[in-house]
Request: fold
Amino acid sequence: MTLRSALIGSAALLAMAAGPVVAQELTAVSFGGAYGAAQKKHMIDPYIEATGNKVLFEDYSGGIAEIKAQVEANNIQWDVVDIEVIDLERACSEGLLEVIPRDILPPGDDGTPAEEDFFPEALANECGVGVIFWAIIYAYNTETIGGGPPSTIADFFDTETFPGKRALRKRPQVNLEWALIADGVAPDEVYDVLSTDEGQARAFAKLDTVKDDLVWFDSWSQAPQLLNDGGAVMVQSANGRIFGAIKDDGRPFEMVWDSNVFDLDVWAIVKGTPNKDLALDFIKFATNTKPLSGMQDVAYGPTRRSGAALVDPAVTNDLPTAHIDKGIKADGIFWADFGESLGEKFNEWLLQ
Amino acid sequence: MADIALAAPPAATRLTREEAGFARRELTRRRLVAFGLVAPLLIFIGFAFFAPITTMLHRSVYNPTVVELIPDTLTVLEAWSGEGTPAPEILTSMAVDLKRLANERTSGKLAEELNRGLPGTSSLVKSTARKLRRAEDAALATDGATLLLDANPKWAEPELWQTVRKVGRTYTDTYFLTALDLERDAAGSIGARQSARIYVQLYTKTLRIALVITVLTLLLGYPLSYCLANAPARTANILMVFVLLPFWTSLLVRTTSWIALLQTNGVVNSVLMSIGITSEPLEMMFTEFATIVAMTHILLPFMVLPLYSVMRGIDPSYMRAALSLGSSPIPAFIRVYFPMTLPGLSAGALLVFIISVGYYITPALVGGTDGQMISNIIAFHMQQSNNWELAAALGSLLLLLIIGLYWVYDRLVGADNIKLG
Amino acid sequence: MSEFPAYFTIWHKIGIYALRFTAAAVLFFLILPILVIIPLSFNSQPYFTFTEGMLSFEASAYSLRWYHAILENPNWILAIKNSFIIGFFATIVATVLGTIAAVGLASPDMPMKRVITALLLSPMIVPLIIIAAGMFFFYTRFNLVGTFPGLVIAHAALGVPFVIVTVTATLSGFDRSLYNAGLSLGAGPLRTFMDVVLPLIRPGVISGGLFAFVTSFDEVVLVLFLAGPDQRTIPRQMFSGLREQINPTILAVATLLVIVSVCMLVTLELLRRRSERLRGVA
Reply:
């Protein structure tokens, strides 16, 4: 190959590689693992089949940082994102998400108009449409735990009775709430206490007592792995991940519902995406009765009443809605206000 | 060399003016040709590499965000003396700006910037913005100051306004100060940072880890290189595969291996437990130990290769002479052999040290919280906390360190003497 | 053994044996991690560890399921394709520009040679995280983030130093009078380069190109900062896999990559021999 033909050839190939993207290609981002698999099965694949559009389905580990980086650099890579409601208010109020008009949502399979069919929490924020009800719980491995079965959130912080590593997700959300409850704060006062300097100091002081026994993970899919491969004896987890590990893989895990933090996930659209129409089209499809009810595969509750009717009674007791009285609801507005400052404090605490 | 010859030609071979002119033109032409060959690459590297580095350096002192968000408030704030609560029109202007930001959904950015100047401020800004979002424009214009203070009495505190003024500068040394665990107090003098001090400690830790890795690669690499260099050529060539194969194997593959080896139920723990050295699995994964072991493995070839090529060139008869003349092996080694290996040793050690100071991937994957190095915190500020200016300042300091080391390397070894494979 | 001279004391001999033992242990340390992943990648269980069955060599404990998993996962297929596309173009850019520049740098008439060489080699030394951050800020302005050209440019910049080093090494044995002869016989610089210089330094160019390719093929930090979902590469895919969902598919990919590096090693060795032969002839 002469120099010239090599150059021409490569220019041509490069043009092909970089050339205009196929018009109908959507990038959807969610949490991977068992949950991602359920979404792929009930939302992504049926959508591809129904419309012929291409969907690139990516994993991320939550939080708003990556969305923020894309919006601030004006370099949008993602179109549709699955966001935890604990982060949604902040993302929406910081202008990282598009507003999703409610009138485009189709009625449920039984004909109920969307606004009545969805549970109110699922449409509470204008930037998202609810996908699941889920809960953050902690679980233990019955084979490696010492000191009998733990049953309360205080047990999670009790390293004397229950020795061994505990794994938490590496962010302040939920961890600070748990620390306060374990320290004796009444569940319904947690967010009030946490908005004071003293309350924050108290939460970090409680976390300090177990700091040496903590293992941190980034992504929900790591939680069952840590429990399985011996990295920790207790892990914080989304309930569905542990449910899947017990039901599908037969792992010797047990869930503790005490002080579970009850939350929703929504589909949202990244602000400024060139594929906004396609993204709306996908959300319309994916939040219909049938796809939503498929989320029961991983023990997450559907956000439409018409979907709840389709839930297998055998699973009902594993859904977060059955344990709501033992937990608290994640406060997205609190975290919109305090996410930044507590995030910074948390990271400095981690590095100290 | 050529221009020295032209500048001071020996008298005997003095050229005619015409010849000298021709030679000079010819030299200029050749220089232009040589430079012309290098120019395309210089332009390319300038765009692809040096311009990005310069942008990063600029970013570490340049932050126009706040000026763009609340220009009016910053202008009226100039009239404030710096003590007591600012005048009502300043508060009103802030109230008007906050309402606008809340509607544009950019109050979060202001909250973020202010929070960096004064930890804990973000919730104040965001909750106030949310309350003012519903306020009437007319009421805001006349009574903005009261509305602002009603929303949160903290807006009366001078400390907050000093922060607004501080973060409202387009060019700032704040990020460099933070990167060095320093801060400027209200009077403008620089002192140790009041809240967490972490970065200096992290730089020290990075240097310490890099030093430990350099020493380890040296301790492991020196005897190996010695044996390879003194083995028969055939054997040495075959054994070199053990060094070159890891060298050519993807970094991620080698890191993956270490995860498989070190994790709680991993290969090392299984072996240790089956031969009864320990009954409980050891915690090796996600520690500084894991970072050091994996990086020593990954960087060992960078030590062995220069050492080997230097040792290969040392005539064994020197050592033989010293020994046969009655010197003991150890003094003979220290006085005769070791000094001759210094060029390879310094090349390898500097290279390993330079590479490990800036390492990111391996600590990120096996280091947990303990084994994080400065690169990891830069990545964290780039990707997680979105504090790009601080990331740039931390990066600039790291770059300064590396340039210093590179300069030493160039002096001692010569950058163009880098050997590969 | 009789290989030791008569003046060696017993301690000296013990010392030599200890040294050899150390060297053998270090070689073992170097190669073991590479070898250990190969059997693990044939695990029939979804774990990163040796199962009982594997240790007792039961056939059922081994399987190819993780290799099938690569083929069945469109993300891996895309990653493999992208790695080769990006690597190929980055190599072309780095090799062409780097080789021409190396010829210029090797000229005795090159002005400011030391400084320019140090500048051109610096991408090899500057920590990747700094390069990645800088490129993220700068490439965003040209809409190069999340595009193939952006990654190609970034990787080419990283590969250039390797091309310069290897080509310069080959050129050091190159007789410049051949080049000057070409020029004085009336051929232009480009023609002379293509017809006279290039054939002689080809082994150096090819091994420089290989280095550039491997640099791009292995690179993950820049990809983490600059690539969009469309541009995921093998290392990127491995990185996120190791962070999020460890399963033996990564080990299977790793094993395939070890085979790739063995091929690289063999190619380089052949090139080295050829280069020595060529120089011997010249």
Summary: Chain C has two domains: 10-61, 73-246.
